[in-house]
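Quick one, tokens below:
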């Protein structure tokens, strides 16, 4: 059983795409931290399927279930969500986490036959008034062309 126990319900199909998030967390907000944190905080406040950090990847929710990660019904129900952790910490560590997050995204694309493009690989701020994924946007140009 996953840490998040299917709290957001079954999605009823395979993920159709992937949302990338940045956690706005400190250097200490690693996978071990989120493993504990998710069990002591209300999941209604938000959670993702996977947390990618310097100490590894925490798979917090099974792929068959939705997650409350982007504040939008279609995104929550139909997309796999990846949190790039430690986004307020050391840049090189963040970039390594981001690289591993994109590897995970590629793996999920292969697994579910998702063709990676701007409709399937999404950034949180595309669908919600948020800076997330703040650091990825900051270090990769600062613009999203819709
Ligand atoms: Zn986000």
């Amino acid at each position: 059983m996953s840490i998040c126990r299917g709290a957001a319900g079954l999605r009823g199909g395979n993920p159709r795409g992937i949302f990338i998030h940045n956690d706005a967390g400190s250097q200490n907000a690693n996978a071990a931290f989120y493993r504990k944190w998710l069990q002591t905080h209300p999941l209604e406040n938000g959670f993702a399927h996977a947390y990618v950090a310097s100490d590894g990847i925490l798979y917090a929710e099974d792929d068959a279930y939705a997650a409350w990660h982007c504040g939008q019904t279609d995104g929550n129900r139909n997309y796999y969500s990846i949190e790039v952790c430690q986004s307020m910490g050391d840049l090189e560590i963040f970039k390594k986490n981001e690289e591993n997050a994109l590897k995970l995204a590629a793996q999920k694309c292969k697994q579910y036959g998702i063709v990676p493009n701007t409709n399937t690989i999404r950034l949180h701020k595309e669908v919600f008034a948020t800076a997330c994924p703040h650091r990825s946007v900051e270090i990769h140009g600062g613009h999203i062309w819709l």
